[in-house]
Write a structure and sequence with these properties.
The chain is mainly alpha-helical and 142 residues long. 46% of the residues lie in helices and 5% in strands.
């Protein structure tokens, strides 16, 4: 069977003109056991929607506070009471880096700054004790 495009009447397949209205435009009826060519074509898979990576945000914890404390201590210790603040910075930064859930970079920065502060103080002490010369404590560009 085929369907007249003009009046919708069913016609025999061999009909050239519609038996009802005389039209000559037909379309194949859709039948469930004879799926049309369009339905047989594989549907191209639509690109998956962009998946937002869901990063579970752990609650702001005490070790995240220590990370910030360590970083601030390392900076303040460059200017005053380094003998207290720089060791505090090292401890806080290490704890914050390994136990905290965020600000790893800040923790690493605090640790490195404190390490540099210790090296400066160490070499200054060696110079003041006449163990090393001025060449060792001055910068490369001086
Ligand atoms: Zn017709």
């Amino acid at each position: 069977m085929k369907i007249c495009n003009n009046c919708g009447a069913e016609n025999k397949n061999e009909n050239v003109f519609c038996s009802t209205c005389g039209g000559n435009s037909f379309s194949e009826p859709l039948s469930p056991d004879m799926p049309s060519a369009a339905a047989q074509q594989p549907v191209p898979p639509s690109p998956p929607p962009p998946v937002q990576p869901i990063i579970p945000r752990k609650p702001f914890g005490i070790f995240d506070v220590m990370t910030i404390l360590g970083f601030v201590s390392s900076l303040v210790g460059l200017f005053c009471i380094w003998v207290v603040l720089e060791p505090l910075a090292v401890i806080s930064s290490i704890l914050g880096f390994f136990k905290g859930s965020r600000y790893k970079g800040l923790a690493a920065a605090g640790f490195v700054i404190a390490l540099i502060a210790f090296l400066i103080q160490l070499f200054t002490a060696l110079y003041n004790g006449n163990i090393i010369g001025k060449w060792a404590i001055q910068g490369v560009f001086h």
